[in-house]
Amino acid sequence: MGLYRSVRAVTGASGDGPIDWTAVADAAKSSTDAGSLDLSAAEEDGYATDVRDARDRVRTVADIDFDLPDRVEILNRHHWIDNNVDTFGRVMEPLEETVGLVPGVARVVNTGSMSVALGFLARNVLGQYDPLLLAEGDIADDHALYFVHPNIEKVAGTLDADGDRFRRWIAFHEVAHAAEFGAAPWLSTHLEEKMETAVQSLTEGNFDRDLLTEIDTTMTAVEGYAELIMDRAFDEEYADLRTELEARRQGRGPVQTLFRRALGIDRKRKQYERGKDFFDAVADERGVAAAGRVWDAPENLPTDEEIETPQLWLDRVA
After folding, report:
1. Where residue 3 falls among pLDDT bands split at 50, 70, 90?
2. Which pTM value belongs to this model?
3. Cβ of 252: how many Cβ atoms within 10 Å?
4. Residue 122, pLDDT above cutoff 60
5. What average pLDDT does range 282-294 have in this prediction?
6. Phi, psi of 291 (to 5 degrees)
């Protein structure tokens, strides 16, 4: 997988900033097998059909009118790295100015750290709905839907699951995210403002725990609602897929577990679980359409306390 090329890309990091993002992408791709995109005509049609069916089912079940992103792409792992390195750069840019090490040393260390993180994620991401947060110019309003085919194929094989059925399940989850942002045009801006404020606070040496909790709670709602809609809209049995996927997560080795904790992936899993419990409770009590009221306005987002006690949100909003 080009370990030498990866190391050479990192040690050759250059530029004025503390992170050389071109070297990050080169190193991440050198240490990561791209995976095959040799899809049959049936597989290509399968992705397109799954996305269209998911859109129609989600519209019906969630009672939400939304459009699919302009870009729906089937990627290999290198494509995913290329599509996400700019996002990492936008998020990290304010923090780059606070690096206190000797610039040349810091650049190599930071470039190496980010390349490892990006490569690890590229080997594990199955699908991604990308609202291109913090983007500027013509792409600021662009949204995209990605499927990392080699990872979907690999995980389906690991779980001994039918590949077509597993791919369809992932499509329903990512389209559910598209429904959220379609139902809440304010959501992208809301998240951007909170993220920018949090990052600025960190660059000033402040740790705003309340703001970070608010961001975490919002993302818990985003992930939890997608889980709810994914389950209620999916047109096949899925309990075995959830059981097998959870068993796979529990069976990770210590090194991978450490990486996932360092990258916040375990936090994301907790967001799935807490958010799903919240929205399941709301939907069971008042129906799926009532759960969708969370996207009517920013003030309808649940608080951390309401996530733990859904009746509080029901009393306040629904």
Report:
1. very low
2. 0.82
3. 13
4. yes
5. 95
6. -60, -35
The 3-state DSSP class for residue 94 equals: helix
Give percent above pLDDT 90 in the chain: 46
For residues 56 and 61, give the distance between their C-alpha atoms in angstroms, rounded to a whole number. Answer: 9
Instruction: State the amino acid at position 269 in one-letter form.
Output: R
For residue 177, what is the enclosing H or E element? helix 163-183
Please write the tens of the pLDDT for every residue from 174-233: 999 999 998 898 998 898 888 888 877 877 777 788 888 898 899 999 999 999 999 899
Contact criterion met (CB below 8 Å) for 147 and 126? yes
State the amino acid at position 223 in one-letter form. E
Domain ranges of the chain: 3-316
Class of domain 3-316: mainly alpha
> In Å, what is the CA distance from 154 to each residue of 88, 165, 238?
25, 14, 18
Cβ within 8 Å of residue 149, ≥6 positions away: 35, 36, 37, 39, 43, 74, 75, 76
CB 159 within 8 Å of CB 245: yes
Contact 294, 225 (CB under 8 A): yes
Residue spans of beta strands (DSSP E) within the chain: 71-75, 127-130, 144-148
Residue type, 188: S
Q: What is the C-alpha separation between 145 and 180, in angstroms, rounded?
A: 13
- Cα(42)–Cα(36) distance, rounded to whole angstroms? 16
19-56: pLDDT as tens digits: 788 888 998 999 999 999 999 999 999 999 999 999 99
| Number of Cα atoms under 13 Å in the Cβ half of residue 227 | 22
Cβ atoms of 145 and 175 closer than 8 Å: yes
CA distance 93 to 26: 19
Strand partners, 144: 71, 130
Spatial distance between the Cα atoms of 24 and 12, rounded to a whole number of angstroms: 10
